[in-house]
Design brief:
The complex is a heterodimer of chains A (286) and B (827).
Chain A (H helix, E strand, L loop, with lengths): L20 E5 L9 E5 L7 H9 L5 E5 L16 E3 L2 E6 L9 H7 L2 H6 L5 H16 L13 H21 L9 E5 L4 E5 L12 E5 L1 E4 L6 E4 L7 E5 L11 E2 L4 E5 L5 E5 L16
Antiparallel strand pairs in A: 1-2, 1-3, 4-5, 5-6, 6-7, 7-13, 8-11, 8-12, 9-10, 13-14
Chain B lengths: L21 E8 L6 E6 L3 E6 L4 E5 L5 E5 L6 E7 L2 E6 L3 E6 L4 E7 L7 E7 L2 E6 L4 E5 L8 H10 L3 H4 L23 E4 L5 E2 L7 E7 L2 E6 L4 E5 L6 E6 L9 E6 L4 E6 L4 E5 L4 E6 L6 E7 L2 E6 L3 E5 L5 E6 L4 E7 L1 E6 L4 E7 L11 H13 L11 H17 L4 E5 L8 E6 L4 E8 L19 E3 L2 E3 L7 H16 L6 E7 L9 H7 L6 E7 L11 E6 L1 E11 L5 E2 H4 L6 H10 L22 H17 L11 H10 L2 E10 L9 E2 L2 E10 L5 H22 L8 E11 L2 E2 L5 H13 L7 E5 L5 H8 L5 E4 L15 E3 H17 L4
Helix pairs in contact in B: 3-5, 5-14, 8-11, 9-10, 12-14
The chains are: A alpha+beta (286), B alpha+beta (827).
Amino acid sequence: MQSFNCKLRIDLRRPMNGDGFGIGWYDDEPQTPGCIFTSTLPAWSNLNLQRLAEKIKSALVFAHVRATTGETATSESNCHPWQFGNLMWMHNGNIGGFELIKRKLQNALSEEIYLSIQGTTDSEHAFALFLNMLQEDAPRGSLRKRTEFSFQELRRAMLATIAQLNRWLDEAGVEETSLMNFAVTDGQSVVCTRYITSYDMEGASLYYSSGSEFRSDADSGQYRMIKANKREDVVVVASEPLTYERSDWMVIPTNTLLVITPKLNVHLYPIHDKYWNPHRQRAVPR
Amino acid sequence: MASSLSPSPTPSSTQGSPSVMAHTCVQELTALGGAVLAVALSATHVFCGSQQGDIHVWRRDTFRLETTLEGHTGGCHALAVMDGVLFSGGGDGRVRAWDMRGLRGLYVIHAGVNSGAVLSLAVVGTRLVLGCQNTSLQWFDVATRDDVPREERRRELLARRLRFFDDSGPIGVCPASTPGRSADNDEALDEYLVAESHIVDYAHSGYVYSVVADNGVVYSGGSDGAIRMWDAQAGQLEAAGQLERSAAADVCVHSLALDCDGLLFAGLQSGGIDVWDLETRQRIRTLPAHSANVFALAVSHRCLFSASADGSVRAWDADLQALGELRGGGSVLAMAVDGVLVAGHGDGAVRVWEVAAPEAAAAEPVRVDARLVQALAQWVRFRSVAGVPALQPECRRAARFLRDLMLQLGAADARLIAATPHANPVVYGRFGSGDDTVFVYGHYDVMPAGDDARWASPPFEMTGRDGYVYGRGVSDDKGPVLATLFAVAELHAAGLLRTAVVFCIEGEEEHGSLGLYETVEAHRALFGVPRLVLLSSSYWLGEATPCLTYGMRGSIRARVRVESSRNADVHSGVWGGAVNEPLTCLAHMLAALVDPAGRVLVPGFHDAVRPVSLAEEEAMRELVAVVAAREKTAPVAAARGLDRQLLRRWRQPALTVHHVEVSTVAAPENATLVPAAAQAAVSVRVVPDQALGDIAAKLEAHITHVFEAFVAARPPALLDDLKLDLEVKPIANWWLADPQTPVYRAALKAIAEVWGMDAEPLLIREGGSIPAVPWLEAFFAPHAVAVNLPMGQSSDNAHLDNERISLENLQRGRQVVYQFLRDLTLL
């Protein structure tokens, strides 16, 4: 629904995300890279997507619908998610004034990571920076060959990525705000952010829902999150709620990092930097 | 009275191998609204919060569903009690307050914006602490809740709109899939909000699954695996440190509990239980308690109880030694312990366990109802089916159990008496002294269980389910016998017995009361002069209306056998037409017994039937009106023409052909042989004023006459002769009491008072027969009046599979007997 009728896009002129889409998923084989299918067709008109969606079963799925930003090309290499080894990455938002820091970013990357970049987007470059941070954090051989990461490592690298981007943006004197809703996974843990480089504005929307089962109601056909015990067996994170069940969806507060651990525990961490504003949280969330 | 009926179940807390915790699942309550997420107990009720958001409330004594508290639009995740007020935390981000006595909603508290589910609740003084899904801790002071004016609260609630859900987008807003449970129809109740200043954001980095409080300190546990402490003294929640668990471990804390020894227990996702010393803030142990999530912990009687997704509840003594485990059903999500242990399961079942903890307060008096149910459970274990040689020892054991119980309960005399070889003994017991007596009649033998596979639980293991206890004999007649015995013992102990009570509990009732009359005759002196013959061996007409039985039909049984003088089957193709056919003859005779309208064709059969008076018809119509108003369930309420039907069942005689058998060597499907003999079982129910002997004689004469006419009409050339073998046996006389006599008035009054009825209980008759009743009345004439006090409901399934009696009926039955005998003046 977010491809053709999104309600919470900050850019309200176009309630569309029609510049392609991508799906990434992991199969049953543990600690092996996932698979990605991208297309520049709008998600609603891709028959292959419908056919694949019918048959593919996976315990962890990344999905993205794209609206291009920053004059980048509508090409398959610019469709989210991207992968590197076991890792997968996607981004909702845009890094304001990215062209002013792109070169700096590329220069900072290790050779292996630099060479892995296929497309031209700010999002993919942010992934490259994240990989670099992860590599620096634990320089143990090739990042590409590592099969798993602790959620703490992923969280640290994510925070370091945002901090580094902010430093470069400040150095470059960029005033445009950036929306950095990132998501990364190694197939075991997931780390997401809802982040904006602003003290008082809300970030691009991000919601989550968790419970025992996300199931369609026999009568209405509507999906509901079933909470049958104090344990989370399903966690959904989405830019907009997937249903209109109000109590099923929680807002991820602006400038917060969400972790889904391998045992499906959901953690939320405030991102304490100069944009941290605890009182924004009490404003009516969007 | 004896202090305890069962051998002391208290396990010793000896070191070494874990002793087994004594345990009985006293009741299992069926799923009503998905998984049970929270459980709370009051002195009188069990409260269970369901996945659907409703709170189901059962009575603790009868396990009847008292009410369902509705309001939450998301699951009910937590329950807490403060001064007679129950608080429920919902998946809808609200806490609802309920009056625990009145069982109604009081007010609603909205957690902060975007709090998600209220997953846990704790009480600190007048403050309620909420653990929320969005990692926050919040608090609400109940005492000052009205400080913010209602108008201001309303305004703030209205301001809480979410753009996605509340503002029209490009194609409008879709309705949620659960209409009719709109989250916004709480107008009837006062609504409050948790003030922003009372919210600790990011109290954890995960869902706050658990909060407990003690001495002004709040402890919280979350999906981030942390246990944090908060000082609640100063009116705020000040962070007061954290119990360090390994940050690397991905193990969430589901549950917390405090004991009085300064220990904090944390139930973990891994199945372990961390034990923390709060003084040193050190983890002193991790108990490898379970194989999966420890969803609930409770401390009671200095014991720790843990409930887990692995389906077990385990117990630990004060020295952290394992005491044993309770198993039954699937994962356990919630638990409360207070005298009993209530476990709420993932499949929605609720199990109530008796737990005997070490060092349990043995001085606590066990309620008489609990002892009654306990004794019944023990008595049901004896498979006392009469007439089965292999079970004769069981009958004897059942009799001895009752005798011992009578002695324990203070009987002046109790013994087994018998006057007939082979028959099971009668259990005789006496409370009080004196010649005038109340004679209690009942029986300890039971019907065979029949097909075990048709029973939901083993027939000779009493099992509690949804307010009933199930087992062979619980309703017919072991339950009512014990209820009567306990009532008499209680009266006796209180010095309230006006006359002596003698018990005559036979062991052959379902087997033709073999030897009963001989035994009573032989021991007549033991029974004194009975003024009242009291029994409880019938059922209510329906489910909800207490009844008193004042009449029963009598019964005659007959066996009709027709034999050919040839002693073997012959082929119908070869011999058909040339031989007599016993089955044809029998069919002819049976056809001559009743006409299609059901009228018995035996000459003179109906002559003595008392005409139905206008008053009787009127009474019947009144009864039907009462039944229609009170009985909501089939079959009674649904029956059309119930008055005419009841007249036929209670007031009119009837003749029934039970079965027809042929004596043949052929397989049943062989349709080519002429059998050598055929027989039928016939019975007659007689009513006032048919004389038993007279009707039996008329039946015999009629059958003989029809047979002779048949034989006379056969052609003379047939090869064989027919012989009639007829046995007519009067079994029971009809019985009819006068419900206007003082004894009946007293019984009606007792029933009405105990059941809190504003109208009189239903006076009913029964179509069936209990031979002993008219016999005893006649034997002890002219003083004795029989009263049959039904305790069970029509759905009790006496004689069938899944026999049961409701605990409420059993307990109130005991009270009825108590009041009846207490207030009765017989002389």
